[in-house]
Amino acid sequence: MPASRRGSGSVTLPTGQTLAFHTRSSDADDLPHATKKRMADHLRKYESLFTLTPQRMRMIVEAFKDSLETGLAKAGQVVPMIPTYVFGWPSGEETGNFLAVDLGGTNLRVCLVTLEGEGKFEITQSKYRLTEEQKQEEGQVLFDFCAECLKTFVDSQIESGVIRKDCLLPLGFTFSYPCLQDRIDHGELIRWTKGFGASNTEGHDVVAMFRKSLEKNKVPAEIVALTCDTTGTLIASHYVNPRTRIACIFGTGCNAAYMERAGDIPKISHLGIDGNAEMAINCEWGAFDSFEHENLPRTKYDQIIDETSNKPGEQAFEKLISGRYLGEILRLIICELIDEGVLFLGQNTYKLEIPYSFDTAFLSLMESDPTDELLMIIGIFTHFFAVETTLAERQFFRALAKLVGKRAARLSACGIAAIVSKMGYLDEGCAVGADGSLYNKYPGFAERIHEGLQDIFGEKGKNIVTYHAEDGSGIGAAIIAGSSQSTHLSCREVLSSPL
Ligand code: BGC
Q1: How far apart are CA 362 and CA 441, in angstroms?
Q2: H or E segment at 188?
Q3: b/e 258-286 (16+ beta carbons within 10 angstroms → b)
Q4: Which of 48-62, 139-153, 208-222, 230-244 has the lowest mean pLDDT?
Q5: Which among 407, 296, 387, 298 has a CA at the least distance from the CA of 345?
Q6: pLDDT band for position 10 (cuts 50, 70, 90)
Q7: Which residues does the UniProt record annotate as the domain Hexokinase C-terminal (predicted)?
Q8: Is 439 helix (H, G, I), strand (E, B) or coil?
């Protein structure tokens, strides 16, 4: 046991869990701990593995740019560059009431959105946490769950008089997994990402599947548009900030979308779309460098994550960056040091040995711990993993978290830079709407992206500015549904208005 305690307290984590901590006064206690010298040696090794030099970043940007071009030129490429059939920017004058369903990597969200014009809106929503079991069950069962949640939400809105009974409501469906689209209300799932594995869904039209569940549950909603969170973010962000040219999600998964000239999408030239028309492209950049692994600096920890995932070889870029994996990268490093006898000798480390037990939210807390004694880090290790740490060990863990978090942000900068340089946005500059738990909650993530952009482009990198985006999966889906409604049904006629 520690020699003395000087304080205790608790904090609430973004996951909703409560983290208790207590302080210990000295590094020396009766457990054998890692020596500072040994940790310093290891830290140097990890620094060289996880640090990205500006030169290396520029090489990644070049390869990334090539992949984007190849994806636009031919169907079925590693980075699929999906034409979304979302044409042009919103005018900001879209109005009306819409339902939005957002099936994300962590939560299911159902929303009622009122677009009020002039870039203004109102949103009412309910959120449901998805269990790991739900992510693996039969696809139709997953869509049934989405329909049931939507039914409960719509019923409650009808009961409170917000929605009229017996109306068919237009619905924007945000499905944030790569889908091949040949029109706005259709999408064939190419592959699951972010650990999902629901059977009988890959290769199927997810709109048709969800429609079936809506009918089964008698939900008064008509899917008029399928979109992914990134495309929705692009549209929603531009609705409020017209300088936006690119949108990114850095959350459980990662991705980007931007607006492309139809004439510069050779793989759809046969459709005869006016070359000057603009269409949003869902890059699905999380797939960059998949299978061949030629361009990204993968460490052995990244390789373990990949090999033990349900989709080995896939989403190579995403696995180095997104919130689903960063905690696991750090956990694997710690486990290696336990195996080598460097850390936690004489302590029971079984909790640390459970895959994915180290939440990425812990890395955020470790990096943001404001106390000299690193009290939050004590709390994480004692409360969740039942191991005692010294101050030197906690400093070491914080330095490791920083390496992992910084690499993720700098790689994200490479992706943004690839689109900027492909589209020639550097001189004029542009705004990049960004969303997702990592971008919003990880301390310094945005600053590190900006630093990375300057390392790649020099001073001009300052022209590219990321900012916290509007809610793409809710507002964006509603705007997209609104733009496509005329071809489906007249939404405002079937909805009570105003809310
Ligand atoms: C998905 C994308 C999504 C991104 C962010 C990725 O795993 O493939 O469609 O936009 O996660 O949620």
Answers
A1: 11
A2: strand 188-189
A3: bbbebebbebeeeeebeeeebbbbbbbbb
A4: 230-244
A5: 387
A6: low
A7: 245-481
A8: helix
Which of 294, 295, 326, 325 lies closest to 310, judged by CA?
A: 325
Residue with tokens 């996951």: 15
Q: Which of 417, 404, 476, 409 has its CA nearest to residue 444?
A: 409
176 lines ligand 1 (CB under 6 A): yes
Tell me whether the omega of the peptide bond preceding residue 242 falls within 30 degrees of 0, making it cis.
Answer: no
Quick one: pLDDT at residue 3? 33
HSE-CB at 281 with a 13 A cutoff on CA atoms is 28
Angle between helices 445-457 and 391-423 (to 10 degrees): 50
Active-site residue, 176 included: yes
Nearest to 417 by CA among 365, 466, 349: 466
Cβ atoms 446, 469 nearer than 8 A = no
Atom of ligand 1 nearest to the CA of 194: 7
Number of other residues whose CB lies within 10 A of the CB of residue 209: 20
pLDDT tens sequence across 405-428: 999 999 999 999 999 999 999 999
Nearest to 150 by CA among 101, 84, 200: 101
Decide: helix, strand or coil at residue 364: helix
Number of CB atoms found within 10 A of residue 309's CB: 16
DSSP 295: S
Q: Is 421 in the pocket of ligand 1 (CB under 6 A)?
A: no
> Which atom of ligand 1 sits closest to the CA of residue 193?
7
Distances in Å between the alpha carbon of 158 and those of 162, 474, 498? 6, 20, 14
Pocket test for ligand 1, best of 86, 107, 194, 250 (most atoms within 8 A of CB): 194
